[in-house]
Amino acid sequence: MKKIALAVSALCLSVSGVAAADDPIAVRKSIMQATAASAGLAGAMMKEELAYNPAIAKAAILTLNAGAKSYGAFFPEGSGEGDTTAAPAIWEDAAGFQAALDKYMTDTAAALDAAGKDGPADLASFQAAIGPVFSNCKSCHEKFRVQNN
């Protein structure tokens, strides 16, 4: 459990360290890396490749929620060029992108509420809480991310 807490703390520190660099592409990549790590952990529990643990589930949901709250601030105009997979649709359809971010924030907040103080009580509760979050991730990536084949 301590290893998980340390890993989550390290991810948070790496994001805050990158934020100081004033590079929106690097910051959003760091946030996405933390999000991907949490999603991978959650997915492994959902597939029962990893034993379900409510505290780990809660940590994954907390990380997803923190990313949801901060991610949108790192797409300023002009940051679509360079080493990024951000699709031009982010700036071409700013209202649609904001709507997707708002839905992601709502979904992660609902998952966090469902998790309660100690995390979802069982795997079925966790799957119900995290399912809408994963669905939102997929739809946003399909529209607002350049796919590297």
Automatic annotation (TrEMBL):
Superkingdom as given in the UniProt entry: Bacteria
- Which first-to-last residue range defines the signal peptide? 1-21
Keyword Transport assigned to the entry: answer is: yes
Tell me which Pfam families the record gives: Cytochrom_C_2
Please provide the record's keywords in A-Z order: Electron transport, Heme, Iron, Metal-binding, Signal, Transport
Record-linked InterPro entries: Cyt_c/b562, Cyt_c_II, Cyt_c_prime
Is Electron transport set as a keyword in this record?
yes
Identify the PROSITE patterns for this entry. Answer: CYTCII (PS51009)
Listed name of the protein:
Cytochrome c
